[in-house]
Design brief:
163 residues; alpha+beta; 3-stranded antiparallel sheet; two-stranded antiparallel sheet; 2 helices; 5 strands; 21% strand; globular
Length: 163
Amino acid sequence: MKLKHIFLSFFLILASNIFSSDIIINDEETYFSVTDKNISEFSFINSVSDVTTMIVKTEEGEFVKLIVPAYNSDSKNGEAELPVLQKLIRVPFGSEIAVKIINLEEKTINLSDYGFSIPVFPNQPSISKSATDIPFYFNEEYYNLDKFTGNNIVETELLGKLI
């Protein structure tokens, strides 16, 4: 029985390596670090070292899923599920939030340079464990656009107040 579990574990590790690969962006580690903070402002550095890719096969076809540890997606259902870092910050009540980008280094990644000619996996809603009929969301109009549809580099949203 134990040998069966070892074989299954080995197979799963091997299978995940076959169907996933990394896109290296830089030689550093992926990290988010607050570098300076006081009562009125703070500074941070966010660095992504690599993006793991995984082929996902669905009834609608094959897609490439982009994975960055600790990142989520904020895409609309059916649109490309792109990695996004979300952080909660506490601001004094009644204050205004202003964002000033001091230094920005960005790199546009063309997935075809890494052998992918398939679309990025579309964002899917959370589903109940008891759901029986699970629809697959794919916004064809969105995927037919021939332009960058990215969001702002930094967005803020007031979520409420802590008591």
